[in-house]
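seq:
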Amino acid sequence: MINNKTKIAKIANNIFVFFVICFYYISFLKKVKCFCLKFWYNWFMKILAIDPGYERLGVCVLEKNKNQKEKLLYSDTFKTDAKLEFTQRLFLIGQELERIIEEYKPKALSIEKLFFNTNQKTATNVSETRGAVIYICLKNKMKVFQYTPLEIKTAITGYGRSEKKQVLFMLKQLIEIKKEIKYDDEYDAIACGLTFFAYNQNLDKI
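struct:
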C-alpha cells in the first residue's frame, strides 16, 4: 500500500515538474517571439499613406528599414463611379483599403489633413471619407499620423510654400517610382508617406 502511494506521489510530482517546464518553455518562446517581432518592426516598417478623396483616393504603401531609404511597394489612384450614391462609393473605398491592409499589413497610417475649399459639399464628403479611412486603420490596430499640406511640402522640398511641380520634382529624387503615374492624388499619397518617415526617423519609438 505504501509503495503504491509512493509511486502515485512520484507520478504526481513528475507531472507537476513536466507542467512547470512546459510553462517556462512556453514563456521563453513568447519572449523570443516578441523580441523577433520587435526587431523586425524596428528594422522594417511598412506604412499606408492616403491622400483622401471620394472621387479619387491616392494610396500607397512604403517600407523603410534603419539603414536604407524608403521603398515604394504599392501605389494607386482608386476611383469611384460618380453615378453611384456617395454611401456606396464610401463602401467601395472601405473594401479597397481592407484589401490593401490585408495584403501589405502596414503598421501605421499617414494621412493628409483636410484643406477646405469653397465647395462645401465636396469638403464634407472628403471629410467623411477621411473619417472612414481613419476608422478602418484604427480597427486594424494601426497608428494614425496626420500632416498638413504645409508640413508635407516642408518635408519634401524644405519649403512649406513650394509649388506642385517642385514637390513632384523632389519626389522623384527621394524615391524610385517605377510606374507611370497619371493622377496627382497618387503623388500626394507618396509625399504624405515620405513625410511620415521624415518626421519619425527613430522607428523604435513609434
